[in-house]
From TrEMBL:
Pfam families: RVT_3, zf-RVT. InterPro entries: RNase_H-like_dom_plant, RNase_H-like_EbsB-rel, RNaseH-like_sf, RNaseH_domain, RNaseH_sf, RVT-Znf. SUPFAM superfamilies: Ribonuclease H-like (SSF53098). This is RNase H type-1 domain-containing protein. The lineage of its organism: Eukaryota, Viridiplantae, Streptophyta, Embryophyta, Tracheophyta. It comes from Microthlaspi erraticum. One of its GO terms (molecular function) is RNA-DNA hybrid ribonuclease activity. Residues 300-411 form the RNase H type-1 domain. Signal peptide: none annotated.
């Protein structure tokens, strides 16, 4: 009813319950129907995350752009920054609503539950934490380990109890026997396969981590995995690669599967040779986590800067521009603001056919499917609106082909708010980067 007011459902409820206001401002009224009562209960939840988009003016006071001189005179400095985060529309559509707690602005039950549990009723989360300890730190430690994605995925499945052990297969009625095919234990669960089975204990005993499970492993897979990851985090990267993740647990499970399905088993010594082989193969392909680039903006900055560069058929720079804005809500809106301004400038310069490339796949998807991105509706209306000469095509590009625009944006951060730079000559200090990016630019 908020995002599609012309639907039959919205018109019926509007005529009966809120003829003069929006659904977020409507009262319950006297003798409401069961449907309206159920919808009205969620009104307080929706108010926590809905943001009004300014349209063309029929139902809100709106124009093409904010009158910044009047705004800076009437409002405090912190309010001016918040107003700058809202983009007025230039089209003829009325203003709608968008959800502020995700990138696309579309409300889902998932985000509604998040608002209810974290904003309206945070005691429920506290009660859940008191009733059962959170496993999030263990999962986070798994994904932070310096190992191959295959091993990380295996450890995650072990913690989530998603391995094809006899206990889980019997619950799914895929087998009737819960016994371990190696040692004959009555119940083969994940903890038994990885830690408590005599075969698994022998594999761990041959590894440098045998002291972690002396004299016997814990009966809980979470305790054993937590001890394992805690010890790994205190070790150096090279020691982690050498001692753990090529890796008694995962390849012990591989040996169990071979014995179960192929009727052959692996000896502990063979498992040790296999993990050393996988360690050697992976060590040459391991990619360490890279630190952010220097020109990326820090979170919480009060201003942001956007930039673009116009190239000709020979990939040479013709024009470039940069502009500073008040801090926008997300980087996606900054990408949309940059594209909107670039299109307006290129249109005024008289270019007829232009291919606009962006390294933001989300922005290109939003332009192709605007109904799924209500948060960017004002920008999309401006991007897809009629231009005098411009015939625009939108596509994605690699980050390597867009580094010069990032450098220009970084250099203009010190400029006054809402000041713009437009020049037809590329600075000399950007010439080496311009030549370097030419092979990456697609035409």
């Amino acid at each position: 009813m908020c995002t599609n007011p012309n639907s039959l459902l919205a018109k019926v409820f509007k005529g009966r319950y809120f003829p003069q206001c929006s659904p977020l401002e409507a009262r319950l009224g006297s003798r409401p129907s069961f449907d309206w009562s159920s919808i009205h209960i969620a009104q307080g939840l929706m108010r926590q995350g809905m943001r009004r988009n300014f349209g063309a003016g029929p139902n809100d006071w709106d124009s093409d752009e904010w009158k910044w001189q009047n705004i800076q005179t009437l409002f405090a400095e912190e309010d001016v920054a918040l107003i700058g985060q809202i983009k007025p529309a230039r089209g003829t559509k009325d203003g709608g609503f968008s959800w502020i707690h995700n990138n696309d602005g579309a409300y889902t039950v998932k985000y509604g539950y998040w608002i209810w549990s974290h904003k309206i009723n945070p005691e429920s989360i506290t009660q859940q934490h008191d009733a059962a300890p959170s496993l999030n730190p263990i999962y986070q430690a798994v994904w932070k380990t310096n190992t191959s994605p295959r091993i990380q995925g295996f450890m995650w499945r072990a913690l989530a109890n998603c391995l094809a052990v006899a206990h889980n297969m019997s619950k799914k009625r895929l087998t009737k026997c819960k016994q371990c095919p190696r040692c004959g234990a009555e119940d083969e669960d994940v903890n038994h396969v990885l830690f408590t089975c005599p075969y698994a204990r022998l594999v761990w005993a041959l590894s440098p981590l045998a002291f972690l499970f002396y004299p016997t492993p814990s009966s809980s897979v979470y305790t054993n995995m937590a001890n394992l990851l805690l010890h790994v985090n205190e070790m150096k990267d090279d020691e982690i690669s050498m001692r753990l993740f090529y890796g008694p647990g995962s390849y012990g499970e591989f040996g169990r599967q071979e014995m179960t399905f192929a009727s052959r088993g692996n000896r502990p010594g063979r498992i040790k040779l296999q993990k050393q082989l996988y360690k050697t193969l992976w060590s040459g392909r391991r990619i360490r986590r890279q630190s952010p680039r220097l020109h990326q903006l820090a979170k919480g900055s009060s201003t942001c800067s956007v930039a673009w560069i116009l190239r000709d058929d020979a990939r040479n720079g013709r024009w470039y521009g940069a502009k500073t804005y008040s801090s926008l809500i997300s980087s996606l809106e900054a990408e949309a603001a940059a594209l909107t301004w670039a299109m307006a400038v290129v249109d005024n310069l008289g270019f007829e056919e232009v291919v606009f490339e962006s390294d933001s796949r989300s922005l290109i998807q939003a332009i192709a499917h605007p109904a799924s991105w209500p948060r960017l509706q004002c920008y999309i209306d401006d991007i897809t609106g009629g231009r005098r000469f411009l015939k625009a095509t939108f596509t994605t590009c690699r980050r390597e082909a867009n580094g010069i625009a990032d450098c220009i944006a970084k250099s203009s951060l010190s400029k006054p708010l809402y000041s713009a730079i437009l020049d037809c000559s590329i600075p000399a200090w950007l010439s080496p980067m311009l030549e370097k990016e030419k092979p990456c630019v697609t035409l």
